[in-house]
Amino acid sequence: MPYAAPWPPADVLRSPRGLAVAVTALLGVAAAVNLFSAAISGYAFSLMKSLTADPAGVGDDALDRSDTLTAIAGSLQLLILLATAVVFIIWFHRVRVNGEIMRPDAFSQTRGWAIGGWFIPLGNLFLPYRTAKEIWTASTQFAPDGSFREVSAAPVNAWWAVWVLSALSDRVFSTMYGRAQTPGALRDASAVGMVTDLITVVAAVLAIVFVRKLTAMQTTKAEQGPYAAV
């Protein structure tokens, strides 16, 4: 008799709370790292401004210190970005699967897009947002009478708008910094870098709000059922 592979187990709801705690902690660290980077960019801006005004008044030790601190900040940003991205995407996929169990008709794409959408050039500026909005809808309880009950999607919209602004600003900064050959150009790049870091801090805070709110919505729906209490 030929071997018959067992059927895969049916989907079950899995709590996103543990992952949400991890994501929240990493986003908090990311915010702190970007605040540090903003301070370093501010220091570099001040140094390049002084160098432009009086080249003889800035010593090599100050320039070396600025380069070292900039390299440290960049390395820390890369490390926390990678760690946060991995855990965030795992959480995002978890709530996407839960959302499909709660309300299969809420989604226009397969669950794989909760991961793949982040890695498509240009598409990653809107595909994850569409998935996030659909998860939000699927995680919302119906009214007690069974009618649709809308919950403000402001946490989703605010997080995504600032995140996209941060990503675009970072590209501008990277281009300016890579092409900077003079103290004036480095001063301007440092100013853009400082603004970019501060925008990223705001994006991280808004991401924490989004993660916590969506996790709470799914937890409530899993515990109370699809209909909100009267």
TrEMBL record:
Pfam family, one: DUF4328
Chain ranges passing through the membrane: 20-48, 69-92, 112-130, 189-211
Keyword vocabulary terms for this entry: Membrane, Transmembrane, Transmembrane helix
Domain DUF4328: residue ranges: 58-215
Family annotation (InterPro entries): DUF4328
Source taxon at top rank: Bacteria
Keyword Transmembrane helix: yes
Designated name of the protein: DUF4328 domain-containing protein
Taxonomic source organism: Streptomyces flavotricini
